[in-house]
Structures
1.
Amino acid sequence: MRYTIDDINRPLEFGFEPALKRSNKLTVVDKANVLDCSRLWRTATREMKDRYPDVKVEFMYIDNAAMQIIQKPSDFDVIVTSNLFGDILSDAASVLPGSMGLMPSASIGSKIHMFEPIGGTAPDIAGQGILAR
């Protein structure tokens, strides 16, 4: 995984803004005890936090976050993380509503954003007039 500060600042801003309007809590999920790129996420977060002094930032390792999001989902409000860790968290959290198909996913770009259900498009049944089960 390779990131620049600019690559990280975009999703951070996208997370800080709603956190400011909601509970003033932002959780940044990473693996900074192992990955250099995760340490860069923490550096970028600490630098950006000065612009959002009312937002409480919590850093959490991905393995702990996966467990905590299932045990205590209400402890989370806004989560910012890399695409890989976001995939892990959305898969883990899918047990809460009971189906991966109910869990949304978002990839935020500089100009184009893509939102999709995590369960995919079910191309094997496309055009048949039936629902995926």
2.
Amino acid sequence: SVGQVVRRTALIISSRASGGAPHIDPSKGKIGDEKMSMPDTLGHAVGPERFELLARIAGNEDPFEMNIKQRAQGSRDEPTMIPSMYDKRLVGCICEEDAISINWMYLNKGESKRCQCGYFFKLVELEHVDYGQ
């Protein structure tokens, strides 16, 4: 029974490691040793916080795509692509460089939307990366 658990765990870890992302030990920081008196930050993190920490270790500084994006051409044929993990996302457009307000709008997956300033935006699916949570 213990042997089966060890084999199953090894199989899960090896299948996650072969997913293309850099291998990160899922128990990193959770198992103490002589040098460690308490688990590190990664050992205490769960859920979205752990996902973000593992992404940063793997080199992705913006796993939730929250950084400011520069507008592309923004035409009907070439809208600014906004990645999202969900079917709907709230987006703010700063229409002019010296504007003191932000025009907010909801984007729905698969359809382009025009801002008040004339630029078009389109929601596209964000590729999910498994960081070995």
3.
Amino acid sequence: PASIARALLGPLKLESSQLLGDAATARVGVGRVVQFIMVGRAWIALSDFTRKAPQVQQALGGGARVELSSGAVLDSVDMRVLEIRPPFRLDMVLAGRRFNLVEAASDAEFREVNARTAEEQAAPRNRYEQSYLEESGRPGDLRISRVVEGDPVVLGTVYVHERM
């Protein structure tokens, strides 16, 4: 099922929203997820999918947004694990037009764009293990996941998402 979630990440208190399932498919295509990240009131990556869209667009001067999307596939052996896959896309949408800022065909290529070291670029794909999931489908449901393999910069990071 589709998921619209919010998370608080790390010591910077980043707020993140994402689309999964049918909601992501409608936005970025089959087998993909899209992530939106906010630091304070400044959106780094966002879209117009939530009830927050009017405030977000106002904060940006109207209509501008940045979206980060990637492929995502459930592990065939352990259905608690989600593997993040290329292509990675970073797009800006301005005045109704989409501009591609980055399209990376591999994890290494995307990590290079993010100024990662050669060792970090060579790391395997990021894999997230879901350790807790509430599935009522109602706002407030929680999903807790942890990066169990991949980019050493985020390895071990725990994400707590709340359905909106």
4.
Amino acid sequence: ERTDGNLGDRDAGPAFNPLFIQIDRIISSMQKGRATFYLVKWRGLPYSEATWEREDHLAGDQAAIQRFVTINSKPAKKSSVVGKLTFRDGRE
């Protein structure tokens, strides 16, 4: 049955789940010009429904961005210079 252009019963519940606008996690990032985009996996939706969002559109969830940055930041490189190896008999 159609009611006001919509299919179904009005009492079936909301057509929109508010969980779908909560960030579950950020999967990836990319830079386009000066803008940073994040691939967002939304709570309650499968990974196939993840979307690219501009950083400034995610201002309400800086914690998710910080988690992504922390998890994906590269550890400081260890020095590739190895100290001299000296044996007990004095050889180097």
